[in-house]
Amino acid sequence: SQQGEEDPQALSIQEGENATMNCSYKTSINNLQWYRQNSGRGLVHLILIRSNEREKHSGRLRVTLDTSKKSSSLLITASRAADTASYFCATDFQGAQKLVFGQGTRLTINP
Amino acid sequence: DTEVTQTPKHLVMGMTNKKSLKCEQHMGHRAMYWYKQKAKKPPELMFVYSYEKLSINESVPSRFSPECPNSSLLNLHLHALQPEDSALYLCASSQVVGRSTDTQYFGPGTRLTVL
């Protein structure tokens, strides 16, 4: 399978704490994206990091990419209850004709 | 307007029924996608349309039949489905196929139950 793996599968933290989730992938990529999915809903794009970038920030999100290890991490700082969702990394595949999603991390923020 | 709409939100059908899922976007995107998502799993790509032509079929059974009547609309025709086809069906669009910097915009999905 081309799908990546995410770690942990589930994460439960207190509001205000930081949440870190990791993604590993198998093939060379051009870019890596992170998406969020609220329960039973569509996915929302969060951030894209190019293969020649090592770190990228967007608001409370920080993404890192290590192409030598074929891995990426997503850090959410100062978590809020509204951050409760599943988070998926996605890598381009077959000349970027399609995205392949990782298995996802289910994040629960406890008030 | 950065919205992808999908109808219906929920669908219950018997194994002998014929039904259709509809997806619409007005962002001028020329790439449209169908995904299937089972509970606690990632979305799995089913079909990709590029400029209204089928570009990728991920070996999907013929009981699923996609159609792209114009650049804004994408349909998924369902016939003789099995209970294991019960899932959330997601539609997405992006500017073009094959540009890895493109974001995919997802609709809210259709929750399909096959009895």
Mind sketching the topology for me?
The complex is a heterodimer of chains A (111) and B (115).
Chain A: E1 5-7, E2 10-14, E3 19-24, E4 31-37, E5 43-50, E6 55-58, E7 61-66, E8 71-76, E9 85-93, E10 98-101, E11 105-110
Chain B: E1 4-7, E2 10-13, E3 18-25, E4 31-37, E5 44-50, E6 53-57, E7 64-70, E8 73-79, E9 87-94, E10 105-106, E11 110-114
Parallel strand pairs in B: 2-11
Antiparallel strand pairs in B: 1-3, 3-8, 4-5, 4-9, 5-6, 7-8, 9-10, 9-11
Q: Oligomeric form of this entry?
A: heterodimer
Form type of chain A:
globular
Can you write the helix and strand succession of chain A as a string?
A: EEEEEEEEEEE
Q: What is the number of strand segments of chain A?
A: 11
Quick check: average pLDDT of chain B?
94
The coarse silhouette of chain B is: globular
Query: Major sheet of chain A, described briefly?
Result: 6 strands, mixed
H/E element sequence of chain B: EEEEEEEEEEE
Roughly what is the average pLDDT of chain A, rounded to an integer? 92
Largest sheet of chain B: 7 strands, mixed
Classify the helix fraction of chain A into a percent range. Answer: under 10%
Helix count of chain A equals 0
Low-pLDDT ranges of chain A: none
Helix segment tally of chain B = 0
Q: Which two chains touch over the largest interface?
A: A-B, 28 and 26 residues
Query: Beta-strand level of the residues of chain B, as a percent range?
Result: over 45%
End-to-end Cα distance of chain A: 37 Å
Structural class of chain A: mainly beta
What ranges of chain B have pLDDT less than 50 throughout 5 or more consecutive residues?
none
